[in-house]
Amino acid sequence: MHRRTLLHLGASLAAFPLLPDAAHADECGKPRTDLTRIDARVGTNHGHLFQVHLDDIKACVEKTYDLTGTAGHPHAITLTPDDFRKLGAGEILRAPCSREGGHIHRLLVRCAPAEEPPERVNVCQIQIGGKDDHELIIPAAHIADPQDRSYEVQGISPHGHGLRLTADHFRKLVAGEQLALRTAPSEGHSHVVFIRYARPAKAPEEATPPGKPTPPGPPASPSPAP
Questions:
Q1: Nearest to 57 by CA among 73, 33, 81, 25
Q2: Is the model's pLDDT at 118 over the cut of 80?
Q3: In the record, which residues are listed under signal peptide (predicted)?
């Protein structure tokens, strides 16, 4: 056999075992191992319930969810195998439910780790004007390191808005001031965002652990003579 043919065959055999592993990351029914819970939300909710289970992601079969809950009227949404594949890969799915009673709800569902990473933990009290179900997360690291930063204000909504905070804004938050900032326009509108830093409460004084004897107090004063 020609030397070039042997080299080509050897390269093909060496590459072959890699193909299943490369496809596994995008395979339906096998979510990432670090994703162990489901975050499913209903925007502007009035009693609806959206429950997606990790077993649904693993089954990877088209499924329709009844969102009625305690609302007294139904809504539904159907997730496809492709939706489950994306969820298992860590993507966020945003979609509207069925229209009932003259309205719809925006929905968000994602696979999440057991504990959110620090960059997804908000340390500020935030109110966003309007009814677009937007969300803004400002993590502790941004408060501790004041510098100009840009944010995407999105949340459950299918569209987002840009928001710029300067280093001076962060210093004002730490000083206890409330910010009122306007987002960049999107979809022909913008929003006013109110931000206040939720300073963590001081830890209480350490109590005596259970089972540990209480330290003796000062000796009692002698009783006065009669």
A1: 81
A2: yes
A3: 1-25
